[in-house]
Write a structure and sequence with these properties.
Keywords: Iron, Metal-binding. The chain is α+β, with helices and mostly antiparallel strands. It is built from five helices and three strands, in the order αβββαααα. The protein has helices at residues 5-12, 63-76, 81-85, 89-96, 103-124, and strands at residues 27-33, 40-48, 51-60. It has a three-stranded antiparallel sheet. Bound molecules: FE2/S2 (inorganic) cluster (2 copies). Residues 37, 39, 61-62 line the site of one FE2/S2 (inorganic) cluster. One FE2/S2 (inorganic) cluster (FES) binds next to helix 2 and helix 5.
Length: 135
């Protein structure tokens, strides 16, 4: 099954590859793995107020996973956190015209967005006296 032009475009010219400072409290980091194939995706967001002002990803995986995460970072930049939470993998599947065997690659992107937001929210949930983890 050939990759669609949009997948190839993101694969050849991925947007927003890189890392943000994981220790910053304005940054949320999501790292997820696909049980289907072992591919791993890291997606990070930088939040100001309730808006995602920057997003970066690193994906160790197939072309569809790279394209899905590239597209995901494009979509979430400039969005409110809650709007980004509403992005579903089916929208990514449609945009990239992913075939059925590649649907889990888009799930990875949805999960990575959600994991990054969860991390951000947990970091900022309470100004609890004990700054718990450093991992
Ligand atoms: Fe081959 Fe993901 S299964 S790269
Ligand atoms: Fe497993 Fe794409 S993420 S094949």
């Amino acid at each position: 099954m050939a990759y669609s032009d949009k997948v190839l475009d993101h694969y050849d010219n991925p947007r927003n590859v890189g890392s943000l400072d994981k220790k910053s409290k304005d940054v949320g980091t999501g790292i997820v793995g696909a049980p289907e194939c072992g591919d791993v995706m890291k997606l990070q967001i930088q939040v100001e107020g309730d808006t995602i002002v920057d997003a970066k990803f690193k994906t160790f995986g197939c072309g569809s996973a790279i394209a899905s995460s590239s597209l995901a970072t494009e979509w979430i930049k400039g969005k409110k956190v809650d709007e980004a939470l509403a992005i579903s993998n089916t929208a990514i599947v449609e945009e990239l015209a992913l075939p059925p065997v590649k649907i889990h690659c888009s799930v990875l992107a949805e999960d990575a967005i959600k994991a990054a937001i969860k991390d951000y929210k947990e970091k900022n949930a309470s100004a609890a006296p004990a700054e718990a983890q450093k991992a």
